[in-house]
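thought: fold this chain, then report.
action: predict
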Amino acid sequence: MGGLASRILSVYRFQWQETFSKKTWIVWLLMIAVPVGIVILVDLTAHGNIETYLWGFFATTLIAGVIPGLNLLLWLTPLLSAELEGNTWTFIGVRPSGKLCMVLGKYLATVSRAIVSGLLGLLIVILVTNSIADRPETTRLYATIALTVILASLAYGCLFAALGVIFHKRAMVFTVSYTLLIEVIVSMLPAVINKLSITYYLRSIVTRIMDWSPHTPIAERKLSDVAAADLLPEMFSPNSTFSDLVDLTVLCAAFLTVACVLTIKREYTRHTSE
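observation:
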């Protein structure tokens, strides 16, 4: 077991070294700067006069969704295709637990990078927007966004790893398509199928922590609360945060297991797979 952990750590360290190449640095900074710039620009344009509820969901989407998502899409989705195209797959396959270590090492390294990116973006937003707007409950809001950055990075990392293995020939295309279809469209549907999306659980957890409850009577809510939650209450989980975390963990464990099992059991070549 110690040997396996050591090999996973070696992959992790190598992936982190790759992060700090000159070309990667530029891309990484841009993935942080653009979403953060949009959040700040919106606040500046509105002179900070945006409902905390609306600004919170907007900032959470960009900081905890877009920033980690871009990191995972760019560096985790091609976890298998990069090895096949780089002709390193054969060497990985002959090493003890090489395939498993490759998947888990890349997963941990990219998720770490996604978390650092999201938290750095949040720190910049806090430093800039605090001088623009005076919002209530900012400490809880920023803590919630930080928590969502971590949860989203871990969860979407599992999903993107699975998609990268299943559709390794067109990993990014299929991942973007799946995300738009399931995580954006299906997660908004008032049907049981939305429980298959990660977004459903993250949205419910954020709403519950911030007391933006979709189950509060309309007469007791602010206008912004009604606009977001009353139209489709099925978009939010009625369960507890603990229950949502358990369901999210099970879903993500299934995704990561699929990625590991397929990587180990399938036979791959550079041009074909079985």
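thought: worth noting. The chain has one domain: 2-265.
final: tokens above.
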